[in-house]
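Chain A, query sequence.
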Amino acid sequence: MMGFSIYDYLIVGTYLIAVTVIGSIISGRQKSSRDYFLGGKNMSWWSVGFSIVASETSTLTFISIPGLAYKSDMHFLQVAIGYFIGRLLVSVIFIPAYYNGDLETAYDFIGKRFGLSLRKFTSSVFIITRVLASGVRLFATAIPVHIITGFDYPTSILIIGGFTLVYTYLGGLKAVVAMDVVQLFIYLSGAVASLFIIFNHLPNGWSDVIAYSTMNGLNKFEIFNLNFTGSLWGYFLSPYTLVGGLLGGTFLTMASHGTDQLLVQRLLGCKSKRDSQKALMLDALVIVLQFGFFLLLGLSLFAFYKGVPFAQLGLNSSDEIFPKFIVENLPVGVAGLVIAGVFASAMGSLSSSISSLASATYLDLFKMTKRGKSLTEKMELRWSKIFTLLWGLVLIGGAMLFTDSSNPVVEIGLKIASFTYGGLLGTFFLGLVFKNTHQRDAYIGFISGLSVMLAVLMFTKIDWTWHTLIGSLVTILVGTIAAKLCKHSNKKAVHQ
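Chain A, predicted structure.
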């Protein structure tokens, strides 16, 4: 066992301090909440594209996706292909609508279409969901930190959360985006270095990966799952069927990249509609390649440990397999680089969550109040930073709630997001496509979508890849029916 040397600790410590200091000073002079939350709407498309990749990657991908491939196969890539399709649809359907008006948040569109009340409600739902999902993501970061340092999970969470909060609070969105680009290449470098070292340890390199992935009738390289599982109901209970994966990935992405302020905030910070679309398609290409890479890394780890189940290695979950390899097998310096990469992926995601929560709270809720409308630019900036500090502290505290979890955190995070994503996506479609719907219809549809999803989660075992699709369809169906019934009753009343 090589362990984690003093040099590795120095690399990680230097990284944490450097990224915090540079991120704090890189944003330049900020005059208003528009500068703080939208980068003055003047950010380059390529930096936004890479930033989106870093924001959505988090430690869920870095740690959990290799573990998922280790214990199963490549079926998750079906979801990633759906991610690509979803991004393409967002760039065609949602982005033009966002750039028709000078929007500040994703829910600003809802406000202009259906009224301020629904804007506040959808933004509030986003805030609750984001707090829970980001808590899972931050906890995921604590796994490798805990394994390497021996610190307990709360201490590990405080370390990563504290450094991230400093530069997010001081630098705003420009600092978040700039640091995301740096962090993206740091964590990818660490992962690539790990893969090369695994191959050097395997006697026959890639041939051993193939051999272990296909031994005893296994086919861990299988991407497309064409098995029907015997019944239609059983099909809905399986997350990684071909139809479930593609539809799940597509609808989840339309919801996340079309209605979630975490990512829409960046798209609104581009100079133009065209730049926003280019940023999203850059993200679409990179994200599929990245998921494929991390799944192959998991198969390589499976060969490295000679196909031994993770439980026999003394691990509680598959999420711990990559951190175990990092600590025990990477040479001095490289281990520090990889753990810096783990921190990088986590900080990119956490800083984005903090900024998006603060922007939604300030722009959608506080700014709409009587007091918020009367603020000077200087006071706007002050309140923006207050909400950033508040949500940073809440997320750090919220991450503590997941410290007893033994399930793959990537699936927990996606299940939390899927609960409300369907209702949000359906409400946006009611506004974009169905011109005869009004605020009351959208409210009825949205609440119905959330209610059905609550029932699905409580009383069925339908898996997360179907959740966004179900919630979205229910919202659209109920909303359009409500619009027709209300129109019919109004006509009836007039004739009477």
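The CA atoms of residues 319 and 366 lie 39 Å apart. The first helix runs from residue 6 to 25.
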